[in-house]
Amino acid sequence: MPVQLTPEAIRVLGALLEKDITTPEYYPLTLNALVNACNQKSNRDPVVAYDEDTVGDALDILRAYNLSGVVTGGSNRVPKYSHRLSEVMNLGRRELALLCELMVRGPQTVGELRGRASRMYDFSDLDEVESVLRSLSERDPDPLTVRLPHQQGTKEPRWAHLLLGAPDLSAYAAESPAAVPAGRSDRIAQLETEVATLRSEVDQLKAMFEEFRKQFE
Fold first, then answer.
1. Quick one: CA dihedral 25, 30, 35, 38, positive or negative?
2. pLDDT tens-digit profile of 103-114?
3. 68 phi/psi in degrees, rounded to 5
4. What is the tally of helices (H) and strands (E) in the chain?
């Protein structure tokens, strides 16, 4: 059946996926760690303030689709939570990296996705990113991504995931944007990638500092 989650379940799934890839030594996550991962201020848009009940309800929704699991017993003194996205949907590292970024930060351009997903997968160029996005959009019977129409005032189209169902297109214009010379368009895409990469590196440093600071609280 098609997967259609809530915004809260999307954030929880994205947080689990991100921590699995970027900090596997701390994964699976306790409920408290998962709440902190959802609410962190770096690599998140929008920033939220979920409590344990909200995250618990989101986990119940994910379990209904078999997209999350819980680990108990043995050396685990408290329950820990994991995702099952890769197994259920048969996705590789490239696909998971892009979906993760779309889940925790919303719709983004190809350049933004390449820069921000670099902490999870090193894409060779923008063409590789777009190729993976198109492959996800053509999955049968249930596509996972969609290329959004150009929005007024922007030059590059954005991509979104479809785990919330079809996106609201009311904010997007049907007409084509003003033409941009090919050379200039390529340069703009390159600059977008460089800026997104720098932002991702700054966000990672912020996250590392927060983890370090928590050790002394």
1. positive
2. 999 999 999 999
3. -140, 155
4. 8, 5
